[in-house]
# Entry
Amino acid sequence: MRIRFLCILPLLLGAIQGRADALPERELQISAPSHVRAGAQFEISVHVATRVGGGEQIGFFHGEFSADGGKNWTGFSYDQGLGPETTRHATLTAGPAASRVLIRVRIAFRDGAAGDVDYSGAAIRWSATWEHWDEPPARSAVVLVDP
# Structure
């Protein structure tokens, strides 16, 4: 039994290592329901991480939502210097039936060898993509409001 375990252990360790290597260097994921009822409260979460190392961290985390199709935006996170990984949660309220709740998040990774970069690793263009919520560095989600 002991010999069998020792033979399998290197295979298991190799499989675990293979999975870790397959993770993206930078991650930005918005989790939200696809549909909600009119006027209902619902939860969203945004997970951000960098696995680049070398001191790179989440330098800026800006999250906003609009319950009126983008006419007005409300912030749910304006944070900076968050380390290499964080998750933010927010409770939002849906608008009227047949409307949409828009969610947008933008992340700037900083302090690493690559400088200020977005989740794809491209340099942040502060007066272009960042200012106008272009993708990347922004990512968005839409929640449809049912009757």
Observations:
- The beta strands are 26-31, 35-37, 41-50, 57-66, 74-80, 85-93, 100-110, 138-146.
- Confidence is low (pLDDT under 50) at residues 1-20.
- The two ends are 61 Å apart (CA to CA).
